[in-house]
TrEMBL record:
PANTHER family registered for this protein in UniProt: BETA-GALACTOSIDASE
Cofactor: Ca(2+)
Domain Glycoside hydrolase family 2 immunoglobulin-like beta-sandwich: start-end pairs: 192-291
Sections of the chain in a coiled coil: none
Protein name per UniProt: beta-galactosidase
Pfam families to which the protein is assigned, alphabetical: Glyco_hydro_2, Glyco_hydro_2_C, Glyco_hydro_2_N
Domain Glycosyl hydrolases family 2 sugar binding: 55-188
Assigned GO CC terms: beta-galactosidase complex
EC number: 3.2.1.23
SUPFAM superfamilies in the record: (Trans)glycosidases, beta-Galactosidase/glucuronidase domain, Galactose mutarotase-like, Galactose-binding domain-like
Similarity remark: Belongs to the glycosyl hydrolase 2 family.
Residue intervals of the Glycoside hydrolase family 2 catalytic domain: 299-420
């Protein structure tokens, strides 16, 4: 009796399980799910690598990256001259006999470019055109149930539709061939929900269009579920009318949390299709977020009633080893990096992404512009364009992250398609024309800084640049961003904008021994490298776009502990964040710990609503004036670092005084022979020119350290008046005095410059001091500073105390941190593979000391006692393909320099001067009465 009862329970459970499974959509993948889980299919390629024979290929993939066909960069050649490369795919699969009474569809998430699909030798529908769009066919009648089935796909790399080719294959990005996104089967019950479209407002109001295929359904029920899939509210029960295949339902959800980029709260909307007896025919769950989007003319873009400043980037779906084939893990990785830069938005340039990237934007919180692929002119033709718009909107309509649709890119839009989005979008999102004044917006691209005056005839439009500050090589992105953003943040009708672009698009060339190829200067425009390597602009953006804005300030002896702060969040109170203050003591050049924390305390952030301004105070321990630096690290409500701001406490002279060893033991001697001055002390030998006063040779224990030919004073034309050698208090001093020059201050006065000086001091233990005084000017357009020669091939690495670890430009100073850094020599040209970051060469700000480790020599350490001095370490090589020199910077003479000013860098489309005040080559030093002084100490 007991056993019978157990069997009954088991039978009930089995029937319940079957009923539940039978009421849900079943999925069977025929391919892998991404670049890391491909499934082998039979493959034949018509032209190029490994063509003319059947072999195997992983699906999904771009066939070039699997060693087939021919690589093409979009606008290198007209598409009509690229041949007629195609690929043939074959794959066998089985479907269970239990599926015989189901409605089965085959789904292709993306095929480049025209796809012809056959099942068991029969064509299942029209050839699909357009690479980046999901399409599907009903295939129930073509299948053999419980048996093997043959899937055949012919993929033409070049489309039969001319406008598709211009839109997708003549664009400014790599173009590929292949089934590059997943392929799978969907098995629906005969009575089923085809799809739903949802509009969930921040108020809790819900509208849903339920698209049905059913003869037996009588009711539709909607339930709200939490993100764990638990029912939290019954929303509505709707009785169905016969013959209708679309059912519109309205309801209201109580006590919901709205979705936004800072708090991406998500729910599931479960929809049950029921028969007359209340049995479930089909159940689906759709993830949703409650949010309201408004474009208010002449005002701005609002989400949930809050006007938004978009801090965005343009992103391609791309991986160097797999092309357009990516993965969910890769989407998560890239979205996290975008969020880490304190961005809140991403534009899908220039095509809809993988659906998993949109899922990640929903869950992590990124505002999205979703885009249909077009490229300049001619426009996408209306017939195929309408299909593409429909496919895009139907697939992506329910993502709360998508705020707006882009109808193409840069004059490639077809205006006949503008109103098609609304036909399929229950949310009625607005449509943009990137790089055009259209309806409520002006999405101007690559405008000069003065364009932010926004005083033209379209000044009543919402200024919303969908591309600005092009990041070719090391230019753009961070360079100029501080100037742009100061204006953009404070101008009401500017809604923010999008940098170009996220990552260097360098592809692995399987036909060229695996080199990384950016097609010259076409793909080298990322904030990160092809594998996510962070360039200097990454951290500049992170600071400039920090939602916690702290005014620049300097810590001096009268520091009161107060900082002025602004909450630049849109939806988060500032006191939801945390900040820690650390007072730091640094180790010296020979140290092994770099730094230690001598005091740490929590900072009480003020209760500031979004866009509010206020102050906070850092506790000052009794020993604060003995600290070397103050670090302020802020974390967001999710525990992620926002940024760490660093402030020197000691002046360079104060800090260095404690670590330089001036041993008075020993004796220093000097002699003059012919044109040279010879100085010996301890184990050091120096040779100076008695004609120029420059250091000519350094020996330690008889071995040459190749630092010489300095200090060269930049742009210096004065003649030497006198060189003297004196022994003073057991020290040898070499003093070089230059002749005074005068200038005409006005017609009545003659103003005399102070004379320039070079003063060398050699100590008994071999330590070498240098003081250089240079006449000052109020306005400076040339380099001010000094330089030495040191052979680049004799340097192994550098260790320094100063801002780092990345180099700076005059218009890209943000993003560095003041601490001890170290990196090995590299000859990286930013954006040109292979790359090692951070770059070894360039300008580095706030130098206190630098230890240069030599190859086959002892190297040296130099301490800089002069505040606000830049280290110049060699001259970076200029990239090719920069014909106008906008991202190629002129460096001063010499190899290792110490400067009081540096130069800016431009962008692909702009000279530095057009990127804002920091891009101007002119500096205002403000005082031509007192000389500029650079004081250094060398230890060898």
């Amino acid at each position: 009796m007991k056993r019978s009862f157990l069997w009954v329970l088991l039978l009930i459970a089995m029937c319940h399980t079957f009923s539940q499974n039978n009421a849900e959509t079943q999925i069977k993948y025929l391919s892998g799910k991404g670049k890391d889980s491909m499934v082998l299919w039979d493959f034949y390629c018509s032209e190029g690598m490994n063509s003319g024979k059947w072999s195997k290929i992983g699906v999904p993939s771009c066939w070039e990256l699997q060693g087939f066909g021919t690589y093409n960069y979009g606008h290198d050649l007209p598409f009509e001259k690229r041949g007629h490369e195609y690929g043939l795919y074959k794959h066998t699969f089985s479907v269970p006999s239990a599926w015989k009474n189901k409605d089965i569809k085959i789904v292709f998430e993306g095929v480049m470019t025209d796809a012809e699909v056959k099942i068991n030798g029969k064509l299942v529908g029209d050839v699909h055109q357009g690479a980046f769009y999901e399409f599907k066919y009903s295939i129930s009648k073509y299948l053999k149930y419980g048996q093997e089935n043959l899937l055949e796909v012919k993929v033409n790399k070049t489309s039969a539709n001319e406008s598709i080719n211009y839109a997708e294959r003549s664009a400014d990005f790599w173009i590929f061939g292949g089934i590059f996104r997943p392929v799978y089967l969907q098995a629906f019950p005969k009575d089923h929900i085809e799809r739903i479209a949802v509009d969930a407002k921040a108020s809790g109001a819900i509208k849903a269009d339920v698209f049905l295929k059913s003869k037996s359904a009588k009711q539709v029920k909607l339930y709200l579920q939490d993100i764990g899939g638990n029912d939290i509210q019954n929303l509505v029960v709707s009785q169905l009318e016969k013959g209708k295949d679309k059912w519109s339902i309205s309801s209201f959800a109580k006590d919901i949390k709205s979705w936004n980029s800072e708090h991406p709260n998500l729910y599931y909307l479960r929809v049950d299709l029921l028969d007359a007896k209340g049995n479930s025919l089909h159940t689906i769950s759709q993830r949703i977020g409650f949010r309201t989007v408004e474009l208010l003319a002449g005002d701005g873009i609002y989400v949930n009633g809050q006007r938004i400043k978009f801090k965005g980037v343009n992103r391609h779906s791309f991986h160097p080893k797999s092309g357009r084939t990516t993965s969910k893990a890769y989407s998560i990785e890239q979205a996290k990096m975008i969020k880490d830069m304190n961005m809140n938005a991403v534009r899908m340039s220039h095509y809809p992404p993988d659906v998993h990237f949109l899922d990640v934007c929903d869950s992590l919180g990124l505002f999205v512009l979703n885009e249909v692929c077009t490229w300049h002119k001619p426009k996408l033709d209306t017939e195929v364009g309408r299909k593409i718009v429909k496919e895009t909107v139907i697939r992506d309509v329910n993502h709360p992250s998508i705020l707006l649709w882009d109808n193409g890119n840069e004059s490639g839009w077809n205006t006949e398609l503008d109103d098609d989005y609304a036909k399929w979008d229950i949310q009625q999102r607005e449509v943009l024309h990137p790089w055009n004044i259209f309806r409520k917006t002006n999405t101007l691209h690559y405008f000069h800084y003065h364009g932010l005056a926004n005083d033209g005839p379209a000044k009543d439009k919402i200024f919303f640049p969908t591309e600005f500050l092009h990041g070719l090589y090391d230019g753009g992105h961070g360079a100029g961003l501080e100037d742009y953003w100061l204006r953009m943040w404070n101008m009401p009708t500017i809604a923010g904008g999008f940098l170009w672009g996220f990552a260097d698009e360098a592809v692995v060339r399987t036909d060229k021994e695996g080199i990384l190829d950016t097609d010259g200067n076409h793909g080298a425009d990322g904030i990160v490298g092809p594998y996510g390597e962070k360039e200097g602009s990454y951290f500049t953006i992170k600071e400039v776009w920090s939602p916690i804005y702290i005014e620049d300030r300097f810590i001096r002896n009268d520091f009161n502990g107060m900082f002025r702060i602004e909450n630049r969040y849109h939806f988060t109170n500032l006191n939801a964040c945390k900040m820690t203050a650390k007072w730091i003591k640094f180790d010296g050049p020979s140290g092994t710990t770099d730094f230690k924390v001598i005091h740490e305390s929590a900072v009480e952030l003020p209760n500031l609503a979004p866009e509010g301004k206020g102050m906070f105070t850092v506790k000052k321990p009794e020993s604060w004036q003995h600290a070397d630096a103050l670090w302020l690290m802020a974390t967001d409500p999710h525990g992620q670092e926002i940024f760490t701001w660093t402030y020197p406490v000691q002046s360079p002279k104060q800090l260095n005084k404690a670590i330089i060893g001036y041993d008075t033991k020993g004796k220093v001697t000097s002699k003059i022979e012919h044109d040279n001055i010879y100085v010996s002390s301890s184990n050091m030998e120096y040779v100076f020119s008695n004609v120029t006063g420059l250091l000519e040779e350094v020996k330690k224990d008889g071995h040459i350290i190749p630092l010489n030919n300095g200090p060269i004073i930049f742009n210096h034309k004065d003649d030497i008046e006198d060189i003297t050698v004196n022994t003073v208090d057991a020290l040898v001093e070499i003093r070089v005095i230059f002749k005074r020059r005068s200038k005409s201050s006005d017609w009545e006065k003659i103003k005399e410059y102070s004379s320039d000086k070079i003063i060398w001091t050699i100590h008994p233990n071999g330590v070498l001091d240098l003081k250089v005084e240079i006449k000052n000017e109020k306005r400076v357009k040339s380099f001010k500073g000094i330089s030495f020669s040191f052979p680049e091939n004799q340097v192994a690495e550098k260790k320094w105390l100063g801002d780092g670890p990345y180099r700076v430009w005059r218009n890209r100073m943000k993003g560095t941190q003041f601490r001890v850094w170290e990196n090995e020599y590299n000859n990286t040209i930013t954006g040109v593979s292979p790359c090692e970051y951070p770059e070894f060469k360039g300008f580095f700000s706030s130098l206190y000391w630098v230890k240069v480790k030599g190859k086959n020599n002892n190297g040296f350490t130099v301490y800089c006692h002069s505040p606000q001095t830049y280290l110049r370490m060699f001259t970076p090589e200029n990239p090719e393909g920069d014909e106008r020199g906008r991202v190629s910077v002129d460096f001063p003479e010499g190899d290792i320099s110490f400067l009081k000013n540096i130069v800016p860098i431009g962008t692909k489309f702009q000279e530095p001067i057009t990127t804002g005040p920091h891009g101007n080559p002119e500096n205002f030093f403000g005082n031509d009465d007192d000389p500029l002084s650079i004081e250094l100490t060398f230890e060898f």
